[in-house]
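Possible regression after last week's pipeline update?

I re-ran a chain I had predicted before the update to compare outputs. Posting the input and the new output here so someone can diff against the archived version. Not blocking, just want to make sure nothing changed silently.
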Amino acid sequence: MIKILIIEDHKLLIQGLKELLGVNECCQIEYEALTGREGLFKVQAIEDIDLVLLDVNLPDMHGADICQKIKELRHDLPVLILTMHASSNHVKRLLTAGANGYVLKDCSDEELIEAIHTVHRGKLYLSGTVNKVLQENRNRNALRDVPSTQMPKLTSREVEILGLILEEFTTDEMATRLNISPHTIISHRKNLLSKLQVRNTAGLVRVAFEKDLIYEYLKKNKKT
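New output (post-update):
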């Protein structure tokens, strides 16, 4: 059973989701919080939370700030964004903050359950609508006169490794997944740092979303 903490300020929505997931034997909303601060307190105080279902607009904090603090408290705790906002800026900000998935409140019951299971398994999940928004944003950027030095060309392997970094795979886990040595993973990571002109993993994540590099990974691996 996946035990969920929902951080959402609309009680009717919480009740509806409880009823929806209550008939599902695999996941259930066990805890709830109406504000960001209350949610952070529960993340810190309750050890058996398996996943956080997080709204973006809370009365006291923005969802991106809450997500970032959750990851600081419990790095491995999956965070699934459930919101009405589908702009590319919202999506990129939340994913950069560490969100493991992003779905909209008008999604189907089946999609929400699929998203919960996907992020709980440690995978990235974006709804079809969100993926479309990212693709459209990428297409608009492609029409601009952007110097090639600002849009580095990554190899297919580098895109794959960047995607696994975004999904929080360790070096050893990436090596096992791709059937290559940890030394080769480290070499590719150094190449990514050099090409994207950043110093660490946080920089890789930031640039991946700023330059829409994540879309290449999603398209190749069909994570939506």
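Follow-up from reviewer: compared with the archived run. Residues 128-142 form the longest helix (15 residues). Marking as no regression found.
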